[in-house]
């Protein structure tokens, strides 16, 4: 028992260093090497530091500012829209009984399991003149994650006693007023969970962005990472690929390290019940 | 229903919870989720492509095409193998980490943060990192070579048989932090007196885990296996960044195939595969989730 008090922390630290530390270390050191030295990525420190050159080149070649703008432009309205519309519908779905509501609920959450029809989405967007536009992308993301929001929020609303709505109703508040002033504030924990998951998915999505935004003016950070890495086929540029990887991963990692406790409790709050 | 007393008749639910609140969400779902899904069943049987403007029905020609060139069955098989490998590894790693880091010590809290970092990274970024690590003359083989005392050149990403396992491992590495967090939350819900009772009954560590703790975290197992399966039926980014579907298309899951064929302008064939994915998920995911739920109740 005495020995295991030292063995356990040692095992944990070694495991974390090897399993997570080494891959991250590889990305970090390679991002600071010259193109020639990065040709075959390894774990050694750069002989010559090319930190500034690589990052500024990744910044311009990978159009980081434009990608960041595109990512935020698509993510923020999608997440806001899917949460507002989804919660509004969930409140009604949770409170009204009956066969019609059960059918609607089943249909609404089927999207959790069914994969989006990515190819025909493009066809539809072309017909609506929304292909390659940020609005088209937002609507596609909203359609994809609406099911997740409705599933999480409806389950949560069912745990809120109806009585909390009654007082506001006695004061003459209308349904929309009750929803905004009474119900929405109570939904905070589940909305936090849904926000974290959906932001994570949209921020890192590349598959759906390819189909919807591909070939257009707008771009996102992952799409730009792919185009930087694809030029790796012709001229080895691991240093730029990893500079871009670090640039792109840093924002989320920093947010997480600062707010880790709230994020982790947010994830588990809605997921395991 | 207090208000019903004051008005003397029951308030109609439809008035209190107006149906039009459903409208925005269902409009978005109908147009941008269900309509494309319905289109899937239509355009899979046409000659829609980048090479001409008109779209005409061609019956089962696309199905025959992807059957005769072997793409359909091979992609289906690889997708299923990949999804089950990911589900097993991701859940296994997550459970292992959760048990290792269960106690609330300072080092464990630190390690939990570290193991969660890959969850936040883009799967593309993770894929490129492992592509570099796993090169035949890369750091992993170099390390194994140093241990073995001779040159090791395992083609981690170049084997037509085993690369699918490597890629599934990389994807599990990326997501195991999430599985760990879910399991940690599940382990926390186990009441202390249950464990105390098991201890008094003379159950050892393994016995306690096997007979008491594991059954009690069954909902977390269900959640993790289901999300891993569903996520990897749609697996794309990790594979794109590690192998791109190779070698010899042996890691070409359905989404990679759809992406490649769409890029070649064969839209209808891509749609056919998208339909195949839809049917695969419908046929497999529902029974698997049903089975896990039933197991939850039995245990």
TrEMBL record, chain B:
Q: Which residues cross the membrane?
A: 21-45, 80-101, 113-134, 216-236, 266-292
Question: According to its UniProt record, where is this protein mainly located?
Answer: membrane
Mode of membrane association: Multi-pass membrane protein
Compartment(s):
Cell membrane
Report whether Transport shows up as a keyword of the record: yes
Question: Signal peptide: which range, if any?
Answer: none
Question: What is one GO biological process annotated to this record?
Answer: transmembrane transport
Specify whether Transmembrane helix is a keyword of the entry. Answer: yes
Q: Which GO terms describe its cellular component?
A: plasma membrane
Keywords assigned:
Cell membrane, Membrane, Transmembrane, Transmembrane helix, Transport
Question: Which domain of life, per UniProt?
Answer: Bacteria
UniProt domain ABC transmembrane type-1: residue ranges: 76-290
Q: Which PANTHER family match?
A: ABC TRANSPORTER PERMEASE PROTEIN, INNER MEMBRANE ABC TRANSPORTER PERMEASE PROTEIN YCJO
Q: Which family does it belong to?
A: Belongs to the binding-protein-dependent transport system permease family.
The protein depicted here goes by the name Sugar ABC transporter permease
């Amino acid at each position: 028992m005495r020995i295991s008090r030292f063995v356990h922390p040692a095992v944990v630290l070694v495991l974390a260093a090897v399993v997570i530390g080494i891959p991250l270390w590889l990305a970090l050191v390679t991002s600071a090497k010259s193109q020639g030295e990065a040709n075959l990525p390894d774990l050694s420190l750069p002989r010559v530091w090319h930190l500034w050159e690589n990052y500024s080149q990744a910044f311009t070649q990978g159009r980081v500012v434009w990608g960041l703008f595109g990512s935020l432009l698509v993510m923020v309205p999608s997440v806001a829209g899917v949460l507002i519309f989804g919660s509004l519908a969930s409140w009604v779905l949770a409170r009204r009984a009956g066969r019609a509501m059960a059918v609607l609920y089943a249909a609404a959450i089927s999207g959790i399991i069914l994969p989006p029809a990515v190819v025909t989405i493009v066809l539809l967007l072309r017909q609506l003149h929304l292909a390659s536009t940020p609005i088209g992308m937002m609507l596609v993301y909203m359609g994809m994650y609406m099911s997740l929001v409705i599933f999480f929020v409806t389950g949560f609303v069912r745990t809120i006693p109806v009585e909390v709505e009654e007082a506001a109703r006695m004061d003459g508040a209308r349904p929309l007023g009750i929803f905004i002033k009474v119900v929405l504030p109570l939904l905070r924990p589940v909305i936090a969970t849904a926000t974290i998951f959906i932001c994570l998915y949209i921020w890192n999505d590349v598959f759906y962005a390819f189909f919807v935004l591909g070939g257009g003016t707008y771009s996102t950070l992952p799409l730009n990472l792919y185009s930087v890495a694809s030029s790796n086929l012709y001229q080895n540029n691991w240093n730029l690929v990893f500079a871009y990887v670090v640039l792109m991963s840093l924002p989320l990692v920093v947010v997480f390290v600062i707010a880790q406790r709230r994020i982790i409790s947010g994830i588990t709050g809605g997921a395991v019940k | 229903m207090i208000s019903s007393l004051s008005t003397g008749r029951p308030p109609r639910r439809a008035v209190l919870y107006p149906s039009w609140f459903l409208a925005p969400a269902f409009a978005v779902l109908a147009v941008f989720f269900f309509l494309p899904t319905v289109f899937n069943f239509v355009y899979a049987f046409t000659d829609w492509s980048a090479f001409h403007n008109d779209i005409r029905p061609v019956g089962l020609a696309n199905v025959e095409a992807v059957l005769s060139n072997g793409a359909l069955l091979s992609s289906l098989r690889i997708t299923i193998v990949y999804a089950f490998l990911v589900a097993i590894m991701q859940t296994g790693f997550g459970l292992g980490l959760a048990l290792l880091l269960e106690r609330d010590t300072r080092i464990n809290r630190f390690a939990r943060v570290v193991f969660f970092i890959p969850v936040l990274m883009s799967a593309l970024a993770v894929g490129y990192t492992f592509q570099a690590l796993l090169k035949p003359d890369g750091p992993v083989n170099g390390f194994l070579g140093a241990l073995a005392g001779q040159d090791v050149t395992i083609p981690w990403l170049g084997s037509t048989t085993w690369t699918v396992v490597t890629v599934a491992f990389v994807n599990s590495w990326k997501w195991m932090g999430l599985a760990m967090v879910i399991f940690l939350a599940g382990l926390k819900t186990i009441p202390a007196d249950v464990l105390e009772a098991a201890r008094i009954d003379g159950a050892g560590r393994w016995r306690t885990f096997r007979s008491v703790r594991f059954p009690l975290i069954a909902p977390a197992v269900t959640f993790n296996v289901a999300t891993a399966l569903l996520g990897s039926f749609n697996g794309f980014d990790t594979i794109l960044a590690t192998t791109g579907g190779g070698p010899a298309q042996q890691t070409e899951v359905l989404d990679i195939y759809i992406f490649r064929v769409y890029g070649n302008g064969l839209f209808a064939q891509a749609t056919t595969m998208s339909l195949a994915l839809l049917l695969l998920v419908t046929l497999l995911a529902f029974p698997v989730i049903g089975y896990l739920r039933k197991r939850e109740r039995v245990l």
